[in-house]
Amino acid sequence: MPRPISVTISVSALAHNLAVVRDHLRQAAAAASAADGTQWVAPSIWAVIKAHGYGHGTAQGVQGFAQADGLAMLDLAEAIECRESGWAGPILLLEGVFEPADLDLADRYRLSSVVHCREQLDMLAHARPDRPLDVYVKLNSGMNRLGFAPDAFRAAHARALDLRKQGILRGVGRMTHFASADAPAGVAAPMAVFQRVAGDLPGPVSVSNSAATLRYPRIALARPGEESWVRPGICLYGASPFADADAASFGLQPAMSLRSRIIATQDLRAGDAVGYSALFTADAPMRVGVVACGYADGYPRHAGTGTPVVVAGTRTRVLGRVSMDMLAVDLTPVPAAGIGAPVSLWGADGPSVDEVAQAAGTIGYELLCALAQRVPVRTIA
Ligand SMILES: *Cc1c(COP(=O)(O)O)cnc(C)c1O
C-alpha cells in the first residue's frame, strides 16, 4: 500500500475562481459606466498557468480554465503541452523567447510572446515565420526585472511596428508588471509611468496580476473596441496575493487540497520532546499524532510549532520540527483520533495554504508550486 498522502486538484474550483474574477471585472465595468455615463468594458483574461499551473498541473489548468480568453506561461514546453492538449485560444509567453529557434516553435504553435529586450527584437528581425507573430512590448515601469526602460520603450515599440510592416509581426501590444500591487504602494506610480510612456500608442494593453485585478479592477477596463487583458495567476488557484486579506473573502475556493493520515501516536509525559532537535517539549501529559507528510512532500520545513492543521475535522497544530517524511501534531483537541485518522494539511477542509505559508514565513504561491513530484495526484471534477 502506498503512503496515505495524496493531493486533490479540483477542476471545478479552478473554473469557479475564473468565474469569480470575470464577475469582479464585469461589476467594475458596470460601476465605472454608471459613474461616468460612458461605456466601459471588462478586460479579457489571460489565465496564468506557469510553473505547471502553480503546481496544480498543466492539464488540470487547461481543463479548469477552458473559459479563459487566453493562457499565459513562460516555458515553451508547457505552452506546447497546452496546444497539444487541445487549447486553441491565445497563448502568451511571459518572458518571450530565449533563442532564435524558439521563434520557429512560436510560429508553429501560434504562441504570442512578450518582447522585453533589444535582443528579442533582433531575433525577430531575423525571423521568417510562416504567419506573422503577435507580441507584447514590455515596459519596465519600476520593478526593474523585465522590460524596456521608460526612455527606451517608444523606440522599441516603433521597431516592433516596423517589423509588422515587414510582415514579421501582426499584433503589437503593450504591457507592464506591477511590483507592489499587493502592498500599500499599490499601482499608482507604475500606472502613471505606463500611461505617460505608452498610453497613447495603439494596440492591446496588458497590465494587472491577481492583486491588481482584485484590488484595482478599474485600471484594466477598456473602452468599446479597445483590447485590454489582465493576467491573474494565484487567485485562480484559490490562494490570496495579499497578506491582509484571505482568498475566501473574495469568494475564491482552494483548488489544491493536501491530505494524509496519522500513522502513529505517542503518549508524552511532561518533559518529553518530539522530533529532530527536540524543538517541542510537553509541559504536561499529552497525545501526539505522527502524520505521513514531510518536507519531501513539499510541506515547508520552516512551519514550526503552532502551524494550523486539521485532524479528523478538528483544527489543531503542528508540533516541533517537520521531518522529511513525517510531522507531528497535537491530538489534545481530538482525543478520539488514532492511526488512520484523516489529516488535512491545506485546502478545502484544512487550513488555507496561505495560513500554512504564513506560519512558515513564506507565501502560498511557494507552497503550491513546491508540491513534490512524489505526492500522488487525484484530479476531481
Ligand atoms: C506570474 C505573473 C503573473 C501572475 O501573478 P499572480 O500574482 O500570480 O497573479 C502576471 N504577470 C506576469 C508577468 C507574471 O510573471
From TrEMBL:
Keyword line: Isomerase, Pyridoxal phosphate
Pathway membership: Amino-acid biosynthesis; D-alanine biosynthesis; D-alanine from L-alanine: step 1/1
Its EC number(s): 5.1.1.1
Pfam short name (any one): Ala_racemase_N
A single MF term (Gene Ontology): alanine racemase activity
Obligatory cofactor(s): pyridoxal 5'-phosphate
Cellular component per GO, a single term: cytosol
Gene3D superfamilies given in the database record: Alanine racemase, Lyase, Ornithine Decarboxylase, Chain A, domain 1
Residues binding substrate, per UniProt: 145, 324
Gene Ontology BP terms: D-alanine biosynthetic process
Record's protein name: Alanine racemase
Species for this entry: Bordetella genomosp. 8
